[in-house]
Structure formats: structure tokens, C-alpha cells
Specification:
Layout lengths: L18 E4 L2 E3 L5 E3 L4 E4 L11 H4 L3 H4 L13 E3 H12 L6 H19 L1
């Protein structure tokens, strides 16, 4: 099996740092899917530079980030809420009217369903 992937050279950044978005889901034994309404956002410890070889710049993995000397420098546990992310989006991209509840969550729900259906 081969995997082809492309690194995103110009990712959306949170205060100049990479981030990922997490949302909890539960599947019951009778295949009902539930999602928790509030997720969280994990950030990197270092400012993003595409050509950097520093793993703390590129990977948001908590097990890795907590070894950085800059861990929790920007926000406790390198974690922010959806509310904080929405405030940032409003501040940085207000003219686009991006809304986590209207634009992110429905797509994440689709991905959750597609993930479980693929299994």
C-alpha cells in the first residue's frame, strides 16, 4: 500500500502558529453516533516557518508539544476553546463571516460519519 500526501505550505494559522481542531464522538454498540458539542483546538509551541525543521513548529501532538521549552507559553496546555478560536476568526477574518458552528461543525459531523461508515 502507498500513501500519497501533500504538506500544506500556507496553512491557516492561529496567531502565527499551526493548530488542529478536535471534536469528541461516541459510537454505541447499536451504531448510534453522538458528538460532544464543544471541542477544543491544540496549538504548536513555536511560530510557523515552512522551512523549519523544528518539530515543535509543525506538529500539534500533545505528547510531543509538552516536551517543548515553550509549552504553555502562549496558552495553557497549548489548548484553546472553540470560543477562543471564533474570537480569533472574527478578529482576523471578520469580513469572511466564518462561523465555527455554521461552517466547521457540520463538515466535522460529515467526516465523523464517513469515518465510521468506512470502518
Amino acid at each position: 500500500m502507498w500513501i500519497a500526501q501533500k504538506y500544506i505550505e500556507r496553512p491557516l494559522l492561529y496567531r502565527r502558529r499551526k493548530f488542529d481542531i478536535r471534536l469528541w464522538a461516541l459510537v454505541t454498540s447499536d451504531f448510534k453516533i453522538y458528538k460532544f458539542n464543544q471541542g477544543y483546538v491544540r496549538t504548536t509551541s513555536e511560530i510557523y516557518e515552512a522551512d523549519s525543521q523544528d518539530k515543535f513548529v509543525h506538529l500539534t501532538n500533545q505528547c510531543l508539544q509538552n516536551k517543548s521549552s515553550s509549552y504553555s507559553k502562549h496558552e495553557e496546555g497549548n489548548t484553546i476553546s472553540f470560543f477562543d478560536l471564533q474570537n480569533f476568526l472574527d478578529e482576523a477574518y471578520g469580513e469572511l463571516n466564518v462561523n465555527i458552528e455554521d461552517h466547521f461543525i457540520p463538515r466535522m459531523q460529515d467526516i465523523i460519519i464517513d469515518t465510521f461508515l468506512s470502518g
